[in-house]
Amino acid sequence: MLDLITEKLAILNQTHLLKFYNELDNSKQKKLLKQIDCLDLSVLDEKILNNKRGTFSPPFAMSIDEIERKKDYYIRIGLQAVRDGKIGAVLLAGGQGSRLGFEKPKGMFNIGINKELYIFECLINNILEVVREAGAWIPLFIMTSTQNDHDTKAFFEEHNYFGYSKANIMFFVQEQFPTIDLNGKLMLSDKGTVSTAPNGNGGWYSSMVRSGVFKILKDNKLEWLNVFAVDNVLQKIADPCFIGAVIDSGSSSGSKVVAKAAPDERVGVMCLEDGKPSIVEYYEMTDEMLNSREPDGSLSYNYGVILNYLFRISDLDKALKIKLPIHKAFKKINYIDENGNYQNPDEPNAYKFETLVLDMVKIQDSCLAFEVDRKREFAPVKNKTGVDSVESARELLKLNNIEI
Ligand code: UTP
């Protein structure tokens, strides 16, 4: 095995990963070789990182007014789908939450002031509303990362799953991508471990398949998955109105969207890319796109995504066949230097790589953009203070009469 791995690394110009191999005991040596053998090295391929975009044009979105007019009809369809066992939910909780600077999994953050109210608890309270209305449990799949899996599971157990049915919660761990330094070299996080980081929220589907959890979906005859982020404490999960509208539209997916707060708000927006529903990130938009307006005065690219999607399961296999683009982010990453010393840099020093769930929209045949009221459904906890912060989320919770 050592020879094979040495050869593989030599071809990639990465033999430094074995620099401390002889200092490791037998079991650590085996572990390192196995890890290297299983590493997803696609991040070393510059071609994959080149996410070439098509031609953008303004999208269609179902507006709040339009939804309001058919609300009861959509809710009936959505609730029936829940009762028929067609709906599952996927909580993406494998992120590192570095902007919040909370060392535990983000869902364990206490957003309460006068009482304890954890982010995970807010989400469970939200999904429980639908469970009660429908009179049926919704299977909830929770994606964790290698780094936070243990803490997350222990926290749910300790809090008795916040009143959810334990039998309807399934955890799975997302996969990792290696990190790379500024010289294009893979890194060691200790002498016997290659440095890796969670592979982004786009990894949910392939990780679900690989973990075996996906078999449960097929066996249970689920048809739709509502995929959502951990950090929006007003997140409506398995929202019957959204589900009903997507099913009624005949689309293979749906995305909740909110009207942008300002033309330059830093949010990904729905668009058409080469005529197909897609999402363009704020930093990919030209000034002209940011400020372009329709004849009625509204922004042409007005609908920001809030990481709440509905995917038809039978259409998801495409996501495995088509490789999602890999995005790279410059981050602070601890490592072992060439002398074997542990380094904990103060500034970003290396790249981590991620696939994004928003890139899955583009490979669906169709996607219904479904507008929701941001004051009622969008309270992201990204930062400690300022925009999208603990403070702003608390204000929005109060506005929605949620006791904190
Ligand atoms: P963010 O893009 O906010 O990333 O994740 P993050 O890692 O949580 O936070 P920062 O950027 O370090 O501050 C959006 C959603 O995607 C999930 C997060 O848990 C959150 O629900 N996510 C992100 C994953 O599940 N896995 C990942 O690898 C990245």
Any overview of this molecule?
The chain is α+β, with helices and mostly antiparallel strands. Helix content is 30%, strand content 20%. It has helices spanning 2-12, 26-38, 46-49, 64-69, 71-83, 119-134, 149-158, 204-211, 213-220, 240-249, 287-291, 317-321, 374-377, 390-399, and strands at 56-57, 87-92, 140-144, 169-173, 176-178, 180-181, 188-190, 193-194, 196-198, 224-229, 253-259, 269-273, 276-280, 303-312, 327-331, 335-336, 342-343, 350-354, 368-371. The chain is globular. The mean pLDDT is 95. Uridine 5'-triphosphate is lined by residues 92-99, 143, 174, 198-201, 229-231, 307, 354, 382.
Number of helices: 14
How would a crystallographer describe the biggest sheet?
7 strands, mixed
Mean pLDDT: 95
Based on secondary structure, the structural category is alpha+beta
Regions with pLDDT < 50 over 5+ consecutive residues? Answer: none
Rg calculated over all Cα atoms:
22 Å
Biggest sheet, spatial arrangement of strands: 4-3-2-10-14-11-19
SS strand fraction:
15-25%
In helices, the fraction of residues equals: 25-40%
Distance between the termini: 56 Å
How many E-type strands?
Answer: 19
Which geometry do the CA atoms define?
globular
Give the cofactors and ligands.
uridine 5'-triphosphate
